[in-house]
């Protein structure tokens, strides 16, 4: 089986199992998605959604966040962890959105990554899930599963992103993000992977090694 055939099968099986999945962060606007993604660093999506349910009722616009009191915002987002840096970045990010983008969230990668607290991962979440621009988001699940499946040998998220961009058809970039996340949560759980239940085991070099009792 060629690498292309293997990838085609993986993509087919992921789609059959999970379909085209949606972003796991609750949002109604691009700036809400941007703020939620900043909050999601080192935090679960479920926790972020709990926090933003009240947060977006209190801060109803980019301007509200730009004018927020740092200490008060820290309290509002405390349970997401790293709240000092996140609060500082959200305020600075929204101030720049007002000053340079008329309060609108840009779709351009360079413009997005120039905002405080926004790296390639956050930018690609916004680009893919709001603007529909083909983008690959490398979170912990995508990083781990891509290595297990033999799609990359890199550990650096940016290098993994570019590795996947070379081998995954562009029209599958957005879907594979959430499909791999779904698979990482349901089957390929980090500390207790359910290899015996995994429909990708045939194509998973890492899983096959685990089954044989070898160290990856």
UniProtKB/TrEMBL annotation:
PROSITE patterns: ENDONUCLEASE_III_1. [4Fe-4S] cluster binds at residues 188, 195, 198, 204. It is an enzyme of class 4 (lyase). It catalyses: 2'-deoxyribonucleotide-(2'-deoxyribose 5'-phosphate)-2'-deoxyribonucleotide-DNA = a 3'-end 2'-deoxyribonucleotide-(2,3-dehydro-2,3-deoxyribose 5'-phosphate)-DNA + a 5'-end 5'-phospho-2'-deoxyribonucleoside-DNA + H(+). Keywords: 4Fe-4S, DNA damage, DNA repair, DNA-binding, Glycosidase, Hydrolase, Iron, Iron-sulfur, Lyase, Metal-binding. Its cofactor is [4Fe-4S] cluster. It comes from the Bacteria. SMART domains: ENDO3c, FES. Binds 1 [4Fe-4S] cluster. Signal peptide: none annotated. Residues 39-186 form the HhH-GPD domain. One of its GO terms (biological process) is base-excision repair, AP site formation. One of its GO terms (molecular function) is class I DNA-(apurinic or apyrimidinic site) endonuclease activity. Its EC number is 4.2.99.18. The keyword Iron-sulfur applies. The keyword Oxidoreductase does not apply. NCBIfam families: nth. DNA repair enzyme that has both DNA N-glycosylase activity and AP-lyase activity. The DNA N-glycosylase activity releases various damaged pyrimidines from DNA by cleaving the N-glycosidic bond, leaving an AP (apurinic/apyrimidinic) site. The AP-lyase activity cleaves the phosphodiester bond 3' to the AP site by a beta-elimination, leaving a 3'-terminal unsaturated sugar and a product with a terminal 5'-phosphate. Belongs to the Nth/MutY family. This is Endonuclease III. It comes from Anaerotignum propionicum DSM 1682. The gene is nth.
């Amino acid at each position: 089986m060629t690498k292309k055939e293997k990838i085609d099968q993986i993509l087919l099986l992921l789609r059959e199992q999970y379909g085209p999945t949606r972003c796991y962060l609750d949002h109604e606007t691009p700036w809400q998605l941007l703020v939620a993604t900043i909050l999601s660093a080192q935090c679960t999506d479920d926790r972020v959604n709990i926090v933003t349910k009240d947060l977006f009722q209190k801060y109803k616009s980019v301007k509200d966040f730009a004018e927020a009191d740092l200490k008060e915002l820290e309290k509002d987002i405390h349970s997401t962890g790293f709240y000092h840096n996140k609060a500082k970045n959200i305020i600075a990010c929204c101030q720049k959105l007002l000053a340079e983008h008329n309060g609108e969230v840009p779709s351009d990668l360079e413009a997005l990554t120039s905002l405080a607290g926004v790296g390639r991962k956050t930018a690609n979440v916004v680009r893919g899930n709001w603007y529909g621009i083909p983008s690959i988001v490398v979170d912990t699940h995508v990083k781990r599963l891509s290595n297990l499946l033999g799609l990359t040998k890199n550990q650096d998220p940016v290098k993994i992103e570019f590795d996947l961009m070379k081998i995954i058809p562009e029209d599958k970039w957005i879907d594979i993000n959430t499909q791999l996340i779904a698979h990482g949560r349901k089957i390929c759980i980090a500390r207790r992977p359910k290899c015996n239940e995994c429909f990708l085991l045939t194509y998973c070099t890492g899983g096959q090694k685990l089954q044989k009792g070898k160290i990856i």
